[in-house]
Amino acid sequence: MQLFARDVPELPFPDDTDTLQVLWCPVDHKPYSEPHTIVRWRKAEEVGSRLIEAPEPDPDSDDSYLPTACVLSPERVEEYPDGWELPAELRARVWAWEESASNSDGWSYFSHLATAPGSKVGGWANWIQDPEQSVCGRGHEMAHLLTIASWELDIETGRRWAPIEERPLLTPHAPPEVQSPADVMIQDAGSLYLFVCLECPERPVESLSQGS
């Protein structure tokens, strides 16, 4: 993945950089059976045309970590923290609202209104299991940088997040590319999360993954 400040100015680029490169080794690495990531903050003028053509995969590569070629059409969305990251009192109020008569459309905060699912940059982590906190080597709490997800959305509950033109496809017989257009699988329909330290000037990045 290669992102430029001109396209995603919200990213916390270190001074004198404007390009984020994320690469991974497409084989399982311990302890969580996930691809090992390498992150580089660089200047676009130094990158040039590199990464435009993907290298040939090693014969030992895991096919589930080799994305299918596709065109990305990113969009900005408004989201809110994962329900399990809310204070207990607020979470109880959310549950009460979901059960109330005023929620006649059957909205679920967890499924429809909280964190956007799928692969994304910035925002809140869409946890599959319990929330986890990443800490950099200097003890600073880290912020969500990006998520690489196995599924872009759930067929049953993802209508809130699906592109309008794709919503008619959200049926039990939807083709696989609707749910996973890049055909990437992290653990068991899991996600790989990258976190960045906003206090360290060099912006160190750590990763962790969760599976279903």
Give a structural overview.
It contains four helices and seven strands. Strands 4-5-6-7 form a four-stranded antiparallel sheet, with no helix packed on it. It has a three-stranded antiparallel sheet with strand order 1-2-3. With 212 residues, the protein is α+β, with helices and mostly antiparallel strands. Helix content is 12%, strand content 21%. The two termini are 24 Å apart. It has one domain (2-79, 115-210).
Summarize the structure.
With 212 residues, this protein is an alpha+beta fold. 12% of the residues lie in helices and 21% in strands.
Map the helices and strands.
Elements: E1 2-4, E2 19-29, E3 34-42, H1 44-47, H2 88-99, H3 109-113, E4 120-121, E5 143-149, H4 176-179, E6 191-196, E7 205-210
Antiparallel strand pairs: 1-2, 2-3, 4-5, 5-6, 6-7
The poorly predicted ranges are: none
- Strand-and-helix sequence, N→C? EEEHHHEEHEE
Major pleated sheet:
4 strands, antiparallel
The class by helix and strand makeup works out as: alpha+beta
Domain count, please report it: 1
What is the terminal-to-terminal distance? 24 Å
Helical percent range?
Answer: 10-25%
Organism: Nonomuraea bangladeshensis
Protein name: DUF1963 domain-containing protein
Describe this protein with a few key phrases:
7 strands, 212 residues, alpha+beta, 4 helices, 12% helix, 4-stranded antiparallel sheet, 3-stranded antiparallel sheet, DUF1963 domain-containing protein
